[in-house]
Design brief:
- The protein is mainly β.
- The chain is built from no helices and 18 strands.
- It is globular.
- The N and C termini lie close together (about 10 Å).
- The N terminus is likely disordered.
């Protein structure tokens, strides 16, 4: 298993649909989600008018190819998780209303779960994709929890932990939040990462 570092900039939250031949990203400043062909042609808007209010809230996104949906976190005034059809043909739905600051997001389509980090409440949470059974699975007092990704086959969560008195660490846990271990003690200034199978 390898953890590959990505750079987090504006635009944010890049996701790829290889079967559909599309790359998706959150254009935070423009308050919209866009997509294009993998060669960069045919740029189009998927959803617009997002993240209205202070903070330009779109932070991260994830796609469910089989379910035909794209999900994203709105960590500004909106404080919610939303979704829309991959081609933008359906209305934007709010599936999670949060009291905190939803930041990173990851999906387990097989288990029908959405996972997200909350920078304000310092938690990792999950819920069913139909917005039921919301639960907090990890609490990290004093830390900021950011990027998150899943190894669904290996039943693991990988996430970034930082903050005052904390180095930028990458940690791993079971999908239910147990078995937390540090795998990279000082990862430096990273915004996101991905997990791939070893060759």
């Amino acid at each position: 298993m390898k953890v590959c570092e990505l750079v987090w900039r504006d635009p944010l939250g890049v996701a790829i649909d290889l079967d559909g031949g599309k790359v998706y990203w959150a254009a935070q400043g423009a308050r919209k989600i866009q997509r294009a062909n993998l060669n960069g042609t045919n740029v189009e808007d998927v959803a617009t008018g997002l993240g209205v209010g202070a903070g330009n809230g779109i932070i991260d996104l994830a796609i469910d190819v089989n379910g035909g949906k794209i999900y994203w976190t709105d960590g500004g005034e909106g404080r919610k998780i939303q979704r829309v059809a991959l081609d933008g043909s359906s209305p934007v739905e709010t599936i999670i209303e949060s009291s905190g600051n939803p930041t990173g997001i990851a999906l387990d389509p097989n288990g029908q779960k959405v996972y997200w980090t909350d920078r304000t409440n310092r938690t990792i949470n999950r819920a069913n994709l139909n917005d039921s059974n919301i639960e907090t699975i990890i609490t990290a007092p004093g830390a900021f929890l950011g990027a998150i990704t899943l190894d669904v086959q290996g039943s693991k969560i990988f996430y970034k932990e930082s903050g005052v008195g904390f180095s930028n660490t990458i940690k791993r846990a079971d999908l239910n939040g147990t078995g937390i271990v540090t795998i990279v003690a000082d990862a430096g200034e990273i915004g996101g990462f991905a997990v791939s199978e070893s060759p």
